Amino acid sequence: MARIAIIGGGSIGEALLSGLLRSGRQARDMVVAERFQERASYLADKYAVQTASVADAAENATYVIVAVKPTDVAQVIGDIADAAARAETNTAEQVFVSVAAGVTTAYYEANLPAGSPVIRVMPNSPIVVGGGVSALAPGRFATPEQLSEVSAIFDAVGGVVTVPESQLDAVTAVSGSGPGYFFLMVEALVDAGVAVGLPRAVATDLAAQTMAGSAAMLLESIDRAGLAGAGTFGPVMDTSPAQLRATVTSPGGTTAAGLRELERGGLRAAVADAVVAAKTRSEQLGITSE
Ligand SMILES: NC(=O)c1ccc[n+]([C@@H]2O[C@H](COP(=O)([O-])OP(=O)(O)OC[C@H]3O[C@@H](n4cnc5c(N)ncnc54)[C@H](OP(=O)(O)O)[C@@H]3O)[C@@H](O)[C@H]2O)c1
Fold first, then answer.
1. Are residues 21 and 139 in the same domain?
2. Which of 17, 37, 68 should be mutated for ligand 1, with most atoms under 8 A from CB?
3. Is 20 domain-assigned?
4. Which ligand 1 atom sits nearest the alpha carbon of residue 69?
């Protein structure tokens, strides 16, 4: 089985590690490089996985997943490139995978051995519970086979879509920041539920399960339309949430009364502005190849 090195054992690194083990990969096929010693010991104890320095972890791995903060990427690439330069023979081709927000494939390509395949991934925080969604963007030298193998790695922690790298700032604004938007929506719904007489714990339970159940209905309808995970657009996909909303809105009923107030309060415009602001911020934070 291909060996996977995870560089950075923070929340994303641990989510990948536990998701891969859950999906049937063996701990002996994985290695983690984590510079914070206490954290490295915790991962080694909890997952019975080997830990090593960045250079040693990367050396024999087919997939090298860089999951450190964007500001630590340069150092990690330096260690990997030094190890590659020291190695007398390059036995097998390595695929470099980066989840670091804003760091481009061109940046990796410029700092790794010439022609290195790189795949950039934008996951989101629910990957820590196996319910995330990750957008994959291949660099110049990644092959379709490598893309599908990396897709299988991220499939262990949620859904996967493939997009051109130019769309990753937009992805960040939708699914990367999305959990924050939904938490705010739930928070508002809970406060509103308390205001109309529900105990907070009951309102929280109702709101959270309603969000999860609505998402499940929507995903099932997308699945039925045969479009799940394709990164495709089309009339059925576009209208699916609107169709579901129509289905749950009886004429003159309670949902219609509530929705009218959400529209009056400018929910759509606020969401549109939020996504544009998040995309602009993502562009500002980006690290390019220069
Ligand atoms: N969290 C999310 O929801 C999310 C979503 C999308 C993308 N991302 C991206 O995923 C990446 C990881 O995020 P995270 O939340 O997992 O970050 P994190 O919790 O800070 O984890 C990174 C870990 O890597 C370690 N590290 C840093 N430099 C290292 C080096 N040279 N050698 C070995 N270990 C090193 C850090 O150690 P120290 O503690 O000593 O620094 C830290 O434990 C980030 O680039 C972020 O942009 C995160």
1. yes
2. 68
3. yes
4. 45
